[in-house]
Structure formats: C-alpha cells, structure tokens
Specification:
single chain; 36% helix; Nucleotide-diphossugar_trans; 232 residues; Spore Coat Polysaccharide Biosynthesis Protein SpsA, Chain A; alpha/beta
C-alpha cells in the first residue's frame, strides 16, 4: 500500500526542514511526500526550490496566497498513493504516529481516520483554553448535523483512502476545509474511525495562524455543507 503525505505550507521556513525530516523518518515504507507552498514570503519557497527539492517527490507553488484548503486541493490532485495523510508543516503533529493512523485502513475497517487530540490519553501541550472551547463547540455543531460522534473534527491529522478523495470536490480555500470534508465524507457513508494522538500545540508567538475569523468561517461551513449545499 503506497502512502502519500500532503503538506500545506505557508511561511514555515523555521520548521520546514525538520518536518520533512520527521516525515521521512516515519515508520512507514515508501512514503510519497508532496508539499504545497501557498505563496510564502519568509523563504519557504526558496528552500523548496533549493536544498529541500530533492527531499520530496513533488512541490506545488501557488502564485498567490489562497489558504490551507486551496493548498490541500492542489496537493490532492498530485497524489499517486492508495492512502493520503494530511500533515501540517509545523511541528504540532508527530509523523511517528502514522502507523496507528493507518492501521484501521490497512485492516480494511475504515475509509477515513481522524487523529483526535482529545481521545486516547496521549501527551498534549497545554495552550489556549478558548481554542479548546471553540473546537468543542464546532465539533458538537458538526456532529449534530452529520450524525457522527467525533471528538475532534478540527484536527489536522486526517487520513483518507485515495478513492474517497476522488469522490468529493474541496471548495473551501481556508480552514473551512475541516468541516467541509467532514460533512462530505459523512454524507458519502464512509466508515470513519478516530485514533487518539499526541499534540504539541504552538503559540501565536511561535507561528500559529488560525484565528477567530476562521472559527466563524468554520461554523458557516458546517451549515453550508450540511444544510444549504448537500452535494459532493
């Protein structure tokens, strides 16, 4: 089974080398690594054109900044693997945990796996209280409309059978990707599993980007893709 890792990147020059190294060191054979640079202005694009180019299979460059959802849309179009893992370019999520994320799919039990930061008792850095509250509210709202019982809809760590991604069209350009893809895989009747993961959250001083406007958009996306727009 070939596994593709898609890494959306925007202004992550400080962590880009390390996250690529960590992905390459993950205990999974034959990983295909695809990085999408979303018009970075901090030197990330230059790194990907230079010393990091030989360390990944493909790099996609956006000519203007579009957002995480747009970067993933571009990355998904490039994958050749049987399974696709979403991996942020920061260091909040650990590639050493790929095997347990992949296990339900490899066993033939799941079509999609969410890595939950709130299940399984794994190490979890203590950061922002209100981010946790917003996450729980958004997950609850999503669950009410999808009728699935996720604990962490907003997690970065999402794993898909590649054929699932060919059956949906990603429309959201920014962080609305999370509720959109959740609504769409639920509506397809995909078998979804959750796996407890560790989480090494960072602060805004360390480069965290998501803000309250993204939370508002996520709530809008929950309504949009579960009520107003019920197509794939």
């Amino acid at each position: 089974m070939k596994v593709s890792v898609v890494i959306p990147c925007y202004n992550e020059s400080k962590t880009l080398q390390e996250i690529i190294d960590r992905v390459r060191q993950a205990p999974v054979d034959g990983l295909e690594v695809i990085v999408v640079d979303d018009c970075s202005t901090d030197g990330s694009a230059q790194l990907l054109k230079g010393e990091l180019a030989s360390q990944v299979e493909r790099v996609v460059f956006h000519e203007r900044n579009q957002g995480k959802g747009a970067a993933l849309r571009s990355g998904f179009a490039e994958v050749t693997g049987d399974v696709v893992i979403v991996q942020d370019a920061d260091l909040e999520y650990d590639p050493q945990e790929y095997p347990k994320l992949l296990a339900p799919i490899i066993a033939g039990k799941a079509d999609v796996v969410f890595g939950s930061r709130f299940a399984g008792g794994q190490p979890h850095r203590v950061v922002y209280f209100w981010h946790m509250v917003a996450n729980r509210i958004l997950t609850l709202a999503s669950n009410m409309l999808t009728n699935i019982n996720l604990t962490d809809m907003e997690t970065c760590f999402k794993v898909f059978r590649a054929d699932v991604l060919t059956r949906i069209t990603i429309e959201e350009d920014r962080f609305g990707f999370e509720p959109e893809v959740t609504a769409k895989v639920a509506r397809l009747g995909c078998v979804i599993y959750e796996v407890g993961i560790s989480y090494y959250g960072r602060t805004y001083a360390e480069g965290k980007k998501i803000g309250w406007r993204d939370g508002v958009r996520a709530f809008y996306a929950i309504l949009k893709y579960n009520i107003w727009r019920r197509q794939g």
